[in-house]
Amino acid sequence: MNAPTFLILAIFLCLFLPFSSQINAESDLIKQVCSQTTNPSLCTTTLVSNPKAASATNFVTLCKAALVSVIINAIDLLSYVDNALFNDPKPELKEALETCVKQYNYAKGSLESSYMEIDLDPLTANYDAKVAGDGYTYCEEALARTKVGDPKLSAKNKVGLDFVSIADSATSKLPN
Question: Are 65 and 56 in contact (CB under 8 A)?
């Protein structure tokens, strides 16, 4: 190997190898979080598709990015139920949907509190993320009591709980 070729190869390796190990470290963070969720596939897809999560080099950054995704999901679900109420729901579902709006507002507030606590109090951040799931559970219980239910909303509740699981797992990795 002649000197210019060796020099180019050496420069390439010096530039690429540190970047390569950085990618593996980031993937390891996401794997550690997603392996402890209720839906690892959804978690991985969500975090890898989020540029801030995918480029996170520590759990604090990853946690913040993950919580933003989870809060967006909660807002989308709240909007879905608000629209269902606005569009004159079946009378037997109206009370359950009103319960769901209250519970989703609670869940969203809990997730927002979790985000605000990340740097200040990681244990409280984890607690707030974990209890956000109660809102989805109480909504589902209200739907079940109607005896007619709403399969589409129940499916969205399940996904919402999977997103809360991402927040719970991510915040559980924060340094104390």
Answer: yes
The secondary structure of 120-148 as a DSSP string is: T-HHHHHHHHHHHHHHHHHHHHHHHHTSS
Report residue 155 as tokens: 């499916």
| Domain range annotation of the chain | 3-172
Taking only Cα atoms into account, the Rg of the chain, rounded to an integer number of angstroms, comes to 21
Parts of the chain with a pLDDT under 50: 3-26
Residue 67 near residue 129 (C-beta atoms within 8 A): yes
Cβ-contact 34, 47 below 8 angstroms? yes
pLDDT in tens, 66-95: 999 999 999 999 999 999 999 977 888 999
Query: Which listed CATH number (1.10.238.10, 1.20.140.40, 1.10.10.10, 3.40.50.2000) goes with 3-172?
Result: 1.20.140.40
Nearest-CA neighbor of 170 among 74, 28, 52, 36?
36
Which secondary structure element, helix H or strand E, spans residue 74, and what is its range?
A: helix 59-86
Q: What is the Cα–Cα distance from 159 to 127, expressed in whole angstroms?
A: 20
Q: Which amino acid is at 103?
A: Q
